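Researcher: I'd like a candidate sequence for this fold, 219 residues long. If you have to choose between options at a position, lean toward the conservative one.
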């Protein structure tokens, strides 16, 4: 694939309880790549994303924006938007979360509000509500707004449309189509047909290895 490598991985391995979940993986993810990351449960997709985010220790070489994903994680996360598959157990209110993200990412809080409202969250009505008390769909909408509003250089989404109603999915996909052309986007999804017109590269993982890596044309 053409473009500058924003994520560079060489011989990456991750082991849990003696089982290699990622096996000597070598791959580059480039500026402008719109990647559908697919594979069965247990293929290693989420583990790979968590290694990229510096959440796990690992063996091998992994650089994100030229930085070590573990020792320079704080600097990397300034440029990375992330939506996890399962919402984290944040013990803050909606307002506190938005204030916190606005400070650490230097983003105008109104951008979070605008995207959340576009997703039909009506965020102003829930500002004082604890995140843990939100429904699954509401949590997902808030997390999506926090990731998208920052205009990140790298956008990682693990099952991004999970818990979203059809109207919200349509809004999400509209935002993803309008990302700057040099943004690296990785969507881990079981619904390949749903994201087919958003991506230009398909990567399939199986048992911790990449078994397919192919460009997608005319999407």
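Model: Candidate sequence:
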């Amino acid at each position: 694939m053409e473009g500058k490598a924003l994520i560079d991985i060489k011989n990456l391995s991750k082991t849990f309880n003696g089982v290699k979940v990622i096996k000597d993986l070598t791959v580059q993810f480039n500026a402008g790549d719109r990647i559908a990351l697919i594979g069965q449960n247990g293929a290693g997709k989420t583990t790979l994303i968590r290694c990229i985010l510096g959440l796990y220790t690992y063996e091998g070489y992994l650089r994100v924006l030229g930085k070590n994903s573990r020792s320079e994680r704080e600097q990397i996360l300034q440029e990375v938007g992330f939506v996890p598959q399962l919402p984290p157990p944040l013990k803050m209110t909606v307002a506190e979360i938005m204030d916190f993200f606005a400070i650490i990412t230097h983003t105008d809080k109104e951008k979070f509000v605008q995207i959340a409202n576009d997703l039909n969250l009506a965020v102003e009505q829930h500002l004082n509500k604890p995140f843990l008390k939100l429904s699954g769909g509401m949590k997902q909408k808030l997390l999506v707004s926090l990731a998208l509003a920052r205009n990140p250089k790298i956008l990682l989404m693990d099952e991004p449309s999970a818990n979203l109603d059809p109207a919200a999915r349509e809004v999400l996909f509209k935002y993803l189509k309008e990302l700057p052309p040099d943004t690296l986007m990785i969507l881990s999804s079981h619904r390949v047909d749903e994201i087919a017109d958003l991506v230009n590269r398909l990567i399939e993982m199986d048992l911790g290895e990449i078994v397919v890596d192919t460009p997608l044309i005319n999407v």
